[in-house]
Amino acid sequence: MSDLFYLLSRYLLFYRTKIITLSFSLALVIAIPLGLSLLSNMLSDHLKTRALSTPLLLGAKGSALDLSISALYFGEQELPVMKYRRVDELRESNLSEAIPVYRKYRVKSSPIIGTDLDYFDFRSLSFKEGRPFIRIGECVLGSDTAKKLDVKVGDTLISSPESVFDIAGAYPLKMDVVGILAPSLSADDLAIFTDIKTSWIIEGLAHGHEKLEKTPSAILKREGGTLIANASVMEYNYITQDNIDGFHFHGNTDTFPINAMILIPKDHKSKTLLLGRYMSDHKSLMLIEPKKVIQRVIERVFDIKDVAMSVLLLLLAATFAISVLVFTLSIRLRKNEIETLERIGTSKFRVRFLLLSEIITVILISTLLVLISILITYLFGDSLIYYFL
Amino acid sequence: MFKHLLLALSLIVVFWGCSESKTGPEEKQTKEVYTVNYPLYYFTKRMAPEGVEVFFPVPKDIDPAFWVPSTQETLSFVKADLIILNGADYAKWTQKVSLPSSKLVNSSKSFEKELLHIKSSNHSHGPKGEHSHAGTAFTTWLDMQQAIKQAEAIKNALVHLDPPHKEQIEQSYLQLKQELEELDKGFKNAFSDLQSPIVASHPVYQYFARAYGLNLKALLWEPEMKIDAKAKAELNALLAVHPAKVMIWEGKPRTENLDYIRSLGLKNIVIEPCMNRPDHGDFITQMKENLKNLHKK
């Protein structure tokens, strides 16, 4: 048999370009649909996990998809706001816990999420370094955000201005980084978390300034026991132990804005009651089940995937037909070689073995390439989805 | 044969030891409850069952309403299983910190609509600098009926925290409620025949005055301060429009202050608001002491 393998190896080496090209072509048309299917399943699982772990979302009336993407994945969708008093209303109803979410500001490209401490327990987030925020002006970073911004616990960050052209808008606030979260392979890795009151300070709904009694030039007028400041009063843009007492809210915090609220119903009955209360005909709010919204998105993605797969299957069929043509032509071209082998006494079995070996070699190489690509997709698919989608 | 027997015996001992450690008693989980003032600490401690530890970390010489916790103390609050707040804007530090909302109990929520709002200018006492009583009056527990409602809110929170001990908590609450009802009755009786106006040294008796029908106006004095000419003028101006016969102090005043007030024809009475731990006794004994002082008038 060694003579056969010698002939085979010399043949494959001579026609190596043809063999490699055929193997790669076959591997590609098989690996692409398989990889696509695997990635779409992983994407579906990834989206579903986050949505399944969030029982209900409450937001101002608008797009359910925008609310889901913004509240679950911190997407850039502009959401209408609702008042913070909705949070207290839900909590007092004793039907569910309520976690506010306010996403409006950023530090460069990383979103600042105003929320409260219950968010970390809800998402089972642990700390790689430091601790949760416990005061206004403190923030906690997702693991990837910390790497991207190159900051560590003890550093400070400044919120980005909303617009360079809006000088009367929100002004940048310097925040202390007190904690960095352990990686969770979720949108939380890419965010910056603060207390919701800190978000309101960035918005300008609360501020701190020197005591007016100490800066008479900043006093516009006195009305009874109340001092009214003029525009020259300097506001603090960094909250420290020395000036934190000076920070105060203007107006009732019940009217301050949030984008969304994560609801965790106490039991199934409470969930049903909440859905009944908010689902139909509520004028200004909508309550959604994220898993249903995301499921509809996934079904749409799978519909598109099915179309793509149909096209790829046609391509596979075409590639297969071309391969058959190439092998048939190859056998025709080797007619003299086959005749020579028969004349020197090679058995028909050995001749057929030589001819089939080319086909088997192409199949083996392309199978190996497909397996390697599927393995890579399986091992790195989650990271791929996470970083690019 | 002997070797096999020895091996078998050793294995038996090893496995027995492992199973013993598995069936040993489970480690007890202690739940922690933090409070922002002494009356709430007292109510919670009265009702808390075994396995629930109650904390009130404010130092004795500091007014809890204006105390600011350190980072470590704030973290202790954050890690607690339950945080009992007074409500009525008490402990303004809670507005500047992040406390997990699911663990917060506003003990005055049930009578939020009946809270009183006040205007006051800044004043100062102690080394911490100026502060103001403007905003919402916060000594809610000085109205014994309100104190009962606060105790009830704490009771409900404790039952939610530790359901197996519900009966014990309810029983403790009923005992506390009865004692507070008796105090309420006592204060009502003590003031029933007092028609004349009253002056208070400090603006901390708003709910007390409302509950027990007192015609009360407050100064911004401290028991230990020296009554200077300005303070005297302030008092005289007040007495001109509010001819009080009784001066209520929030603590034992200096002898000179007592003498001065007496010289104006007013009686001195100490009614300790009990914001922090009393020097002796507890909340109930301190309120009983206040009642005794009233009867001495």
Quick synopsis:
The complex is a heterodimer of chains A (389) and B (297). With 389 residues, chain A is of the alpha+beta class. In chain A, 50% of the residues lie in helices and 19% in strands.
By secondary-structure content and strand pairing, the structural class of chain A works out as alpha+beta
What class do helices, strands and sheet pairing of chain B give? Answer: alpha/beta
Global geometry of chain B: elongated
Q: Mean pLDDT of chain B, rounded to whole units?
A: 87
Average pLDDT score of chain A? 85
Task: Describe the protein.
The complex is a heterodimer of chains A (389) and B (297). Chain A is of the alpha+beta class and 389 residues long. Chain A has helices at 2-14, 16-52, 64-73, 85-92, 118-122, 143-149, 196-203, 268-279, 290-333, 335-343, 348-388, and strands at 56-60, 82-83, 96-107, 110-115, 127-130, 138-141, 156-158, 174-181, 192-195, 206-207, 219-223, 226-229, 248-249, 257-258, 260-265, 285-288. In chain A, the strands form four sheets. In chain A, strands 1, 3, 4, 5, 6, 7, 8, 9, 15 and 16 form a ten-stranded mixed sheet that branches. A two-stranded antiparallel ribbon of chain A has the order 2-14. In chain A, β11 (219-223) and β12 (226-229) form a beta hairpin. Chain A starts with a helix and ends with a helix. Chain B has 297 residues and is α/β, with parallel strands linked by helices. Chain B starts with a helix and ends with a helix. Classes of the chains: A alpha+beta (389), B alpha/beta (297). Chain A binds chain B through residues 87, 91-92, 97-99, 116-118, 121, 131-136, 138, 195, 197, 213, 224-225, 244-245, 247, 249, and chain B through 68, 71, 74-75, 78, 92, 95-102, 109, 119-122, 134.
